[in-house]
């Protein structure tokens, strides 16, 4: 079944997701003041797991067993691994650059789509992805330090590769599954590993001895419930209603919000990086707009 032209509701959902996920990076930055990267990631996944656990047990029975492996893959590729990669990366990267690098997701969504899932591309979408990629590159350039890219930035690139694959798995193998069921059950599969890893850290000691850690826990809770649980349900629904590439466009809106939060928090960007915004906005238009087709009699 061919997807329809994105509706106003689809675009509003996209903008909302951009605002929510764009705020995730400043929340992680604040949480990392008290917690380690493993603790932030573990708490993020574990909180969502605990919230969804009662529902997941019921939803699991409604999902065909042959779909379980795909939902488990979505949980690992779209939540568990990226949570750890992003948290680790942000121990050395500000929130704005982290949000900017996240905009590479549509590129890998498209590449996974055409290489493994038989998705057809067109010049318009190729151009949109190219402009978005160039815009993202301009945003991470530091004129004072050349074009060097550190290993922590590459962790986010790896996370975007996983995001792209996760979106395609959802689109091609879980099209008929309720998005709420996908979200709840995916955390059911990855929640236990997150709890085990979290339990191997000194998170309890941190909460007992660092007064600021409770504020950090609040940041992680907001990140988990708003930026992970609620947002993922909306995202999977958006992917089902449109396609994986349109859903991935949200990552071109995320840097705008991330940079705004970064500026509020005292971070700064160069003029050439602001120029990247223009390219990103153009790419959003090109990738989201489908060419009109004329039906033959």
Explained architecture:
By secondary structure, the protein is an all-alpha fold. It has one domain. The chain is built from 14 helices and no strands. It has helices spanning 8-22, 24-31, 37-60, 68-89, 95-101, 105-116, 123-140, 151-173, 179-199, 203-209, 213-241, 244-248, 250-264, 271-288. Helix 6 (105-116) crosses helix 8. The model is unreliable at 292-297 (pLDDT under 50).
Secondary structure blueprint with pairings:
Elements: H1 8-22, H2 24-31, H3 37-60, H4 68-89, H5 95-101, H6 105-116, H7 123-140, H8 151-173, H9 179-199, H10 203-209, H11 213-241, H12 244-248, H13 250-264, H14 271-288
Helix pairs in contact: 1-11, 1-13, 2-5, 2-11, 3-4, 3-9, 3-11, 4-8, 4-9, 5-13, 6-8, 7-14, 9-11
Short overview:
The protein is mainly α and about 300 residues long. Helices cover about 75% and strands about 0% of the residues. It has helices spanning about 10-20, 25-30, 35-60, 70-90, 95-100, 105-115, 125-140, 150-175, 180-200, 205-210, 215-240, 245-250, 250-265, 270-290.
